[in-house]
Amino acid sequence: MSDERKPTEGSDRPSDDSEAILSRRNFLIEAALAGVGIAGIGASCEETDEPQPRV
Amino acid sequence: MSFRSVAIELTARCNQRCSYCYNAWRNDPDVMGELDLDALRLLLTDLARLGDLRHVTLTGGEPFLRPDLHELIELIAALGLGVVIITNGGRICAADVERLSGYGHLLSVQLTLAGACAATHDLHCGAGSFEHVTRALEALTKAGIPTGGSFLCTAQNFQETAAIFEKFAGYEVRQVAFNRFNPSGYSTAALHELMPTRSQVVEALEAAERSATERGQKVFCTMPIPPCVVDTQLYPHIKFGHCSAGAKNSEPAIGTDGRLRLCTLQRDSVGPIEVLEAQSLTELDSTLAFRSSIPEFCLPCPLAKRCLGGCGAAAQWVLGSARELDPFVAQHVMLDFDARSRQHCSSAKVSPGLEGNSASRADDE
């Protein structure tokens, strides 16, 4: 298993996971700048008062 | 008051030494005290009087180590509240099952699988623990007791996700919490062994989504998975949430000392429950401070005020401040994450480790 944990210190080449997070973060920011609502970027969350499984 | 559910940590004692345990005080001789039944009666009566409490989650340590557990469950029924019990199953006996089956207000007994087989589960929870939890699952579901599952996703077990969900389905467990490992308390000592990467969690989510689709299981992510980590639309049968600590839908915790914390993972208390006489949980200074702590990485994100940057409690444990990024995200985007996390996590009181983890080390008798 390759270590996709984090960007390598001293290196400017991030791992695939780092790239995925930074890319999606940029997408969310750009979508907001373009006036796309939260539901439009697939980030709405359902809230419930029902007890849910937890830690 | 502004919450409908509260988690009560009944005891610091536990018969297991799970490497992922969030408790900081587990079996700590300094905090081995626990509220007796009279104190719990007063506490619950006050909480019921103060507001809109609907149900109580009993946790620990291991709740079934309390000899007065059933009296407490009956007390909760007398107050008109529902009850959820979180247990490792190792101390549930036939007499417990018989009594539990008679409680109309028992909403769920929740058990955790950290592996689909003894080797993997016991790696996380100690030798013999898989046998304990599966025996409890079988007895509870056979007795028709509402049973919930919790899947703890770590770097050591993510490849068993499908098999774990299948295992839960075999016990007719329809509601499963997807808990990606979230370092806090004791588990900070196992951070670098247990923390799954984003790719590993994505692989596990894909398996959970398939299981939810095929088997009709209700799957909830109880630990935050920030929207910059995954596109939640890819998993339509999984419910995602975000940190609710101190919010209207939160479940604050009451420790064995009777003091209130914003959630079970929080390191610090906000005071005795009397603080709620003057202000609701959402209005407390400590709540406002915690919920306004947005990590710098998240400031440009339009979802930051809802997401809060993931789990601030874990950030405090691992990186020293709730204003830091959730360690699950930080491991990928913070260049000095290893060094900074080792600085804070090395001060954990006990290193449960993954080697030599054995339920036989229990000192619960």
CATH class descriptor name of chain B: Alpha Beta
**Biggest sheet of chain A, open or closed, and with what strands and sense?**
none
Q: Could you say what the CATH architecture of chain B is?
A: Alpha-Beta Barrel
The secondary structure category of chain A is mainly alpha
**Tally of alpha and pi helices of chain A:** 1
Tally of DSSP β-strands of chain B: 11
Could you list the spans of chain B in which at least 5 consecutive residues all have pLDDT below 50?
348-365
DSSP helix fraction of chain B: 25-40%
Textual characterization of the structure:
In chain A, 33% of the residues lie in helices and 0% in strands. Chain A is an all-alpha fold and 55 residues long. The radius of gyration of chain A is 17 Å and the shape is elongated. The C terminus of chain A is likely disordered. With 365 residues, chain B is an alpha/beta fold. Chain B has one domain: Aldolase class I (TIM Barrel, Alpha-Beta Barrel), CATH 3.20.20.70. Chain B is 34% helix and 13% strand. Chain B has 14 helices and eleven strands. The longest helix of chain B has 18 residues. The C terminus of chain B is likely disordered. Chains A and B meet through α1 of A and β3, β4, β5, β6 and α13 of B.
